[in-house]
Amino acid sequence: MKFNKWTLGLAAVGVVSLASAAKADEKLSVVQTALSSTTISGYVDTSINWNIGTGTGTAFYGYGGVAKADGFNLNVVELSISKPLDESEWASGYKVDLWMGPDAVTLGTQTASGDLAIKQAYVALRTPVGNGIDWKIGVYDTIIGYESSSSPNNPNFTRSYGYSIEPTTHTGLLGTYRVCEEVSFSAGIANTFGPVINARAHPPGGPKAESYKTYMASVALTAPSDWGWAAGSTLYAGFINGFNAAPAGLTALNTPANQGSYYAGATVATPVTGLKFGVAFDYLDSYVSSSPGAVGVANSDVWAAGIYASYQATEKLSLHARGELATRLDGVLGLDNSQLWAATATVQYDLWQNVISRLEIRWDHGDEATYFSGSAGAATQRNSVLVAANIVYKF
Questions:
Q1: Which of 12, 134, 163, 350 has the fewest beta carbons closer than 10 A?
Q2: How far apart are CA 167 and CA 195, in angstroms?
Q3: Among candidates 88, 104, 86, which has minimal Cα distance to 38?
Q4: CB of 362 within 8 A of CB of 158?
């Protein structure tokens, strides 16, 4: 083993031994090897929101609301540290996504309020069964949905109602198997339907047995490269069913609930270069059972449908549109046997390097009553109109 001159000099005067120096160099080499395959990335997400008109209502989609109306916002800072799986049969790695800022509170993975949250933290493993099964154990993003919790990955700045009724994260075990380039499956088991890390469906005095868990599965189909202009189009479907200790939006009874979330979506390429369309359908079924502290039993059903269009006009300029319909019974999303419509248009122009800059206009409309919050927080409006500028730096 070779030593540098400084180490040899210390050994010569008896400060260190060559044996201990060799062990130290070996440990340092292991650390350097691990760090060389580790990547650090993330983003800083900011926005400027203007709800047009005095007293105009504020819609209640995910990460929106009165707190962000009519002002400047830091939404979230994400710091991601990861070692992706390599191509070896027994590959291993990890991923940690940390959120800091107001959206970290909304994410809800922590058991106490605070603006620092773990979004993902899992160990990644591969077992050489067939083409290889990739495993995640720990905290991972939900497996369903057209949109992501990370805003820069979405075509629009604001989230859809479909996203708003989906689960966000789970603590458990997830396996993914790719049959071929065109077909892949995922299946997993988690503690609960809800996002709180290490939550249980059987808290002290809780309604479920120790063995009760949340189950999930999905399938993804991708059009092969020889399909011409349709190549790369995707079809995706999945479900998640389990117990949520504190389901958000159940205004009738904020008590533990069995919940099932079902999703189907597709992204379709077109003969026009840069133009693609998408569709998404979400259905959430909730059953609030009697339990300690509960005052009754309630059923809740809500579904949301969305259509998407995106056009990459130039290298820097892209245009995005989304139309939505959401309907439900019994209080989820503030609705009561009624419907919400929403239309969103987004212009993105990447003027600065590593920066996403978007201008968005969104209109939400309630069919039959007042659903949107005014300045005092009460649901006094049938319409909500938002103009927002979103600036994100990705590193």
A1: 12
A2: 7
A3: 86
A4: yes
Q: Residue 58's CB: how many other CB atoms inside 10 A?
A: 24
Instruction: Return the amino acid letter for 155.
Output: P
Q: Report the chain's mean pLDDT, rounded to a whole number.
A: 85
| C-alpha to C-alpha distance for 147 and 4, rounded to whole angstroms | 53
pLDDT at 19: 60
Q: Is the pLDDT of residue 39 over 50?
A: yes
- Which residue ranges make up each domain of the chain? 57-394
Arithmetic mean of pLDDT, 280-299:
64
Using an 8 Å Cβ cutoff, are 306 and 323 in contact?
yes
Q: Are 51 and 386 in contact (CB under 8 A)?
A: yes
Per-residue buried b or exposed e for 356-389, using 16+ beta carbons within 10 Å of the residue's own CB: bbbebebebbbeeeebbbbeeeebebebbbbebe
Structure tokens at 79: 């710091």
In this structure, which topology does domain 57-394 adopt according to CATH?
Answer: Porin (2.40.160)
Structure tokens at 226: 């020889």
d(CA 262, CA 115): 30
pTM: 0.84
For 245-268, what is each residue's pLDDT tens digit?
A: 765 544 333 457 788 999 999 999
Asked whether the beta carbons of 288 and 259 are under 8 A apart, the reply is: no
Q: At 373, is the pLDDT very low, low, confident or very high (cuts 50, 70, 90)? A: low
Q: How confident is residue 25, by pLDDT bands cut at 50, 70 and 90?
A: low
> How far apart (Å, rounded) are the C-alpha atoms in residues 142 and 164?
13
Is 315:293 a contact under the CB 8 Å cutoff?
no
- The pair of structure tokens assigned to 120 is 């993902």
The answer to whether 153 and 143 have CB atoms below 8 angstroms apart is no
Residues with Cβ within 8 Å of residue 256, at least 6 apart in sequence:
206, 207, 243, 244, 245, 246, 247, 288, 289, 291, 294
Cα 5 to the center of its chain, rounded Å:
51
